[in-house]
Amino acid sequence: MTTWTNWANSASGNPVRVAHPATTAEVADIVRESAAAGLTVKAIGASHSFSAIGVTNGVLLHLDRMTRIMEVDKAAGRVRVQAGISLRKLNPILRHYGLALPNLGDIDAQSMAGAISTGTHGTGGKLHGNAKAVVGLDLVTAGGEVVSIDEGHELFGAARVSLGALGIITEVTLQCVPAFLLHAGERPMPLGEVFDNLDTLIDDNDHFEFFWFPHTDKTSTKRNNRVPAGTERKPLSNARHLIDDELISNGAFEAINRIASRKRNWVPRINKITGSVLSAREYTNDSYDVFVSPRRVRFRESEFAVPRSALKDVLTQIGNWIDGHDETISFPVEVRFTAADDIWLSTGHERDNAYIAVHQYHRMDYTRYFDAAQTIFTEHEGRPHWGKIHTLGADYFAQRYSRFDDFVALRHRLDPDRVFSNDYLDHVLG
Q1: Checking DSSP bridges between strand 177-178 and strand 181-190, what pairing results, if any?
Q2: Residue 86 carries which DSSP code?
Q3: Per-residue pLDDT reduced to its tens digit, 321-357
Q4: pLDDT at position 239, please?
Q5: According to the model, what pLDDT value does residue 391 have?
Q6: What is the pLDDT of residue 253?
Q7: For residues 160 and 131, is the Cβ–Cβ distance under 8 A?
Q8: Which residues of the chain have pLDDT under 50?
Q9: CB atoms within 10 A of CB 144
Q10: What pLDDT is stored for residue 1 in this prediction?
Q11: Statement: the pTM of the whole predicted model exceeds 0.90
Q12: CA-CA distance, 412 to 401, in Å (whole number)?
């Protein structure tokens, strides 16, 4: 028996078997064999979900051999990939073909299947998460059948953010856009100024996000905008990248959090320094190089989508809770934005959102902080990211997603014996 643990060490399982298929046909064979033996099956990509969504004590189906580009249609801007390919590997390949994904988050370790199945997203007031770029996929059902799903298929609305509950995704077709450069503008800004100018910051930038440092009024803002064709790349110098992104944001930040885990009363002063040390900077580079930031300090994360209009109230309440309790938070709170979409269990379903992500260093207990934040989020119709930590169940989600009952009905139809289930899915889907 093998022990599997996710990246954050926040979830683990003991699968009786670990399989590494290379093709859709091999996946189908493994599913049929496992179901016949009465074993559950869960697919794993990069193990980067913080929740227990990928845990299994049955067969762990690892997609690390399913990383090929299957087809490229440059004229249509469409690329078909195996579901285990990581965003990190895919992005430069797309660039080689003059293509790009329209939006990305700031971490690129995830597999394509994992990113879409959990509703991974970036930021952009008029843009969406990764799953919105999906125009087709192959799904292996509990009976070992392969279903090809496209935009006209009855499963299309459910399959793009499926939580792994409907089957194993093996191939994905993506609608890309022409490769583009982004001009990045990063600078500190007081939290009150962010609130006062929030609509302008969201609407006047292709991509806007900010990080708020608890115990302070300090934020670090990021504005990323497309530049005209023919604009020259002007990436950060090697020295600036080394100092800002490696030494400060990773090396020094790791050291700061180790100190904070032992000297918690130092955290407010540390945050004031941290919130001031990163100075303004500008650069222009390939979109994926601007979107993605190195994240080597290990942490736990909970993230909720709330209506955009609720952002100020939610952050104010979180700040009041932190200041009113014996709790010190060394990690900044990340805030991003996306537009409404039509995917049944996407956090953006039929609603423009602000995304608020709370983090805690992996050596520190996150429970009380995350529980308090979840209470505040749910008071504002919050929807948790499926791959991040929360404790909510099916009764809550039935109130938050208009197609929730439809999704559950599909699960009953496609997987009546719960071949793809685990404790997490039984809790969130009932």
Answers
A1: unpaired
A2: B
A3: 999 998 889 999 999 999 999 999 999 999 999 999 9
A4: 77
A5: 98
A6: 81
A7: yes
A8: none
A9: 20
A10: 67
A11: yes
A12: 18
HEC string for 191-242: HHHHHHCHHHHHHCCCEEEEEECCCCCEEEEEEEEECCCCCCCECCCHHHHH
* CA 379 to the chain's CA centroid: 22
Q: What residues are paired with 100 via a beta bridge?
A: 177
Please say whether the beta carbons of 374 and 358 come within 8 A. no
CA–CA separation, 398 vs 406, rounded Å?
10
**CA nearest to 188, candidates 222, 220, 215, 214:** 220
Q: What is the pLDDT of residue 247?
A: 63
**Tokens for 97?**
């073909």
| DSSP 8-state code for residue 332 | P
What Å distances lie between residue 419 and 40, 114, 141, 411, CA to CA?
Answer: 5, 18, 9, 11
Q: How far apart are CA 171 and CA 93, in angstroms?
A: 17
CA-to-CA distance for 66 and 76, rounded, in angstroms? 24
Q: For residue 157, what are its two tokens?
A: 């609305």
The partner residues of 177 in beta bridges, in order of sequence, read: 100
Strand, helix or coil for residue 360? strand
Tokens read off for 156: 């299309």
Domains and CATH numbers, the chain: 66-178 (3.30.465.10), 181-384 (3.40.462.10)
Q: How many CB atoms lie within 10 A of CB 17?
A: 17
Pull the structure tokens for residue 396: 């809550």
Q: Which two tokens stand for residue 47?
A: 């193990």
3-state secondary structure of 263: coil
Please give the full DSSP string across 31-75, using - where no structure is assigned. Answer: HHHHHHTT--EEEESS---SSSTT--SSEEEE-TT---EEEEETT
What pLDDT is attached to residue 21?
98
Helix (H) or strand (E) holding 341: none
The sign of the CA dihedral 311, 316, 322, 324 is negative
Q: What is the pLDDT of residue 327?
A: 87
In 3D space, the residue among 167, 188, 120, 144 whose CA is nearest the CA of residue 343 turns out to be: 120
> What's the pLDDT at 325?
92
Both tokens of 320, joined, read 């009041």
Residue type, 252: A
Task: Check if the beta carbon of residue 284 is closer than 8 Å to that of residue 227.
Answer: yes
The size of the chain, in residues, is: 430
- For residue 208, count other CB atoms closer than 10 A to its CB: 24
Q: Which two tokens stand for residue 146?
A: 């392969």
Cα 117 to chain centroid, rounded: 10
Q: Which amino acid is at 401?
A: Y
Kind and range of the H or E element at 285? strand 281-286
Q: What's the confidence (pLDDT) of residue 44?
A: 96
Judge contact between 224 and 291, C-beta under 8 A. Answer: yes
Sheet architecture: strand order including 168-175: 69-73, 78-82, 168-175, 134-140, 146-150
